[in-house]
Amino acid sequence: ETGVTQTPRHLVMGMTNKKSLKCEQHLGHNAMYWYKQSAKKPLELMFVYNFKEQTENNSVPSRFSPECPNSSHLFLHLHTLQPEDSALYLCASSQDRVGPNEKLFFGSGTQLSVL
Amino acid sequence: AQRVTQPEKLLSVFKGAPVELKCNYSYSGSPELFWYVQYSRQRLQLLLRHISRESIKGFTADLNKGETSFHLKKPFAQEEDSAMYYCALRLDSSNTGKLIFGQGTTLQVKP
């Protein structure tokens, strides 16, 4: 599949579990992002990676741990989450870090429920 | 603090009526603004960006620095315009690609 692919589409986990979200892009982009979309809040940027290097951590709790082994793959490792972490987690990519002419390409998201 | 405000959660209009989706921002620097759209069962995607001064699918948006607004407009709404619309602000001081999104407005175009 071309574009930005996220797996799994849905995830239910307990507060003591450890799970990982995966994002893959086949667009040849250099920048990748994790966003969180909660029911009553705007899309919140979590992390930005550019050429595999983390360039932004938007004060995200340490129970969320990103990993970017290469420019095509991005993971979000989850451990000891709280019910309030339940949300849609969106991955996005762009050719380079977002500038006035850059645009984000989004995945379909992983709907996470923490019990 | 930098912020993007979309005051309307839902905007419902009839087909053929004009549409204006409001977006206001709070930022002391030079803003770069975008509109993203999410159609039913589709991914969030870029609709237009202010720097391009483009018209996409009949939509336009003008940056008004005096009013700190970037409202999205279309003279005649179509049913296929029904979607969730997000206004987004990029901080020019950011070298990290940080985009701040508004809460989104659902546009419902009735036949």
Write up what this structure looks like:
The complex is a heterodimer of chains A (115) and B (111). Chain A has 115 residues and is mostly beta strands. Chain A has no helices and 11 strands. In chain A, strands 2, 4, 5, 6, 9, 10 and 11 form a 7-stranded mixed β-sheet that branches. Chain A has a 4-stranded antiparallel β-sheet with strand order 1-3-8-7, with no helix packed on it. With 111 residues, chain B is mainly beta. Chain B has no helices and 11 strands.
Record keyword descriptors for this entry.
heterodimer, A: 115 residues, mainly beta, seven-stranded mixed beta sheet, B: 111 residues, six-stranded mixed beta sheet, three-stranded antiparallel beta sheet, 0% helix, globular
Low-confidence stretches of chain B: none
Beta-strand residue fraction of chain A: over 45%
User: Biggest β-sheet of chain B, characterized?
Assistant: 6 strands, mixed
Provide the succession of SSEs of chain B. Answer: EEEEEEEEEEE
What is the overall number of helices of chain A?
Answer: 0
Question: What is the strand content of chain B?
Answer: over 45%
The largest β sheet of chain A comes out as:
7 strands, mixed
User: Oligomerization state of this entry?
Assistant: heterodimer
Termini separation of chain B comes to: 41 Å
Strand segment tally of chain B = 11
**Cα distance spanning the termini of chain A:** 32 Å
Helix-strand string of chain A: EEEEEEEEEEE
Helical percentage of chain A? under 10%
Number of helices of chain B: 0
